[in-house]
Amino acid sequence: MGRVMRYDEGAAKRIVALSDTPEMRAQRRKVIELLAPQERWRVLDLGCGPGHLARDLAQAVGPHGSVCGVDVSEEMLAIASHDDIELVHVEGTTLPFEAGAFDAAVATQVYEFVEEIEAALAELYRVLRPRAKAVILDTDWDSLVWHSTDDARMRRVLDGWRERVADPPLPRTLSRHLRNAGFEIDRGEVFAIFDPCGRADSYSARQIEHLGASAVGVPESQIDAWAADLRHLAHTDEYFFSLNRYIFVASKPT
């Protein structure tokens, strides 16, 4: 079993807040556009989190299709509960489905938190039917540019966050991992989050709370000072945040 990042109740609530931002709504629209789900498809949402993407997919596949969301976090699944989607709790990388059970799959910001990436992708390959499509989105955390008045403190906080991530620059090697699993890569895109304002409802503003609370080994006093600095920059029009996410559209050959 590969270690997968898990979320307690507090973290789950922070993820819900992050998911309900303009940037994440745009990200979900991009993922659905690239997947191009068809009516009657059975779609797997790996690491479904609070279920926003799964519910959007359920509308796209219609009443004769179905969407199954899986997650390692029971707190997330409780939040995601919805009549239109099936939800399954999983442990590690093993998926409790028959081979070829799904017509398509999505995995957004999941594999960067999985230690045994080869095993996880092999499972994804197994549960997809031939000619099925998968859309995979992960962040390269080294692409993060976040303006601060204290660069050393910013590095300490971000290094503490990276301790939570199994492979912070995963997208750089994801092509190889996908091909090793048997997939063909059909397309790639960059989804950039650029925020020069830091408004309270933005992804980056809400990430201040989540990333700060998740950073490993950083004293609370430094986290508080880091967060206060960023919020001050937002109020004085000196804010800057930029982060790249990379989307891979892959298919299972016949």
What would your notes on this structure say?
The structure is a single chain. The chain has 254 residues and is of the alpha/beta class. The protein has a single domain (9-251), classed as Vaccinia Virus protein VP39 (Rossmann fold, 3-Layer(aba) Sandwich). 41% of the residues lie in helices and 23% in strands. The protein has helices at 9-19, 22-35, 52-61, 74-80, 117-127, 151-162, 171-181, 203-214, 220-235, and strands at 42-46, 66-71, 86-89, 102-108, 128-139, 145-146, 184-195, 241-251. Strands 1, 2, 3, 4, 5, 6, 7 and 8 form an eight-stranded mixed β-sheet that branches. Helix 1 (9-19) runs antiparallel to helix 8 (203-214), helix 5 packs across helix 7 (171-181) and helix 8 (203-214) runs antiparallel to helix 9. The two termini are 28 Å apart. The model has no long low-confidence stretch (mean pLDDT 95).
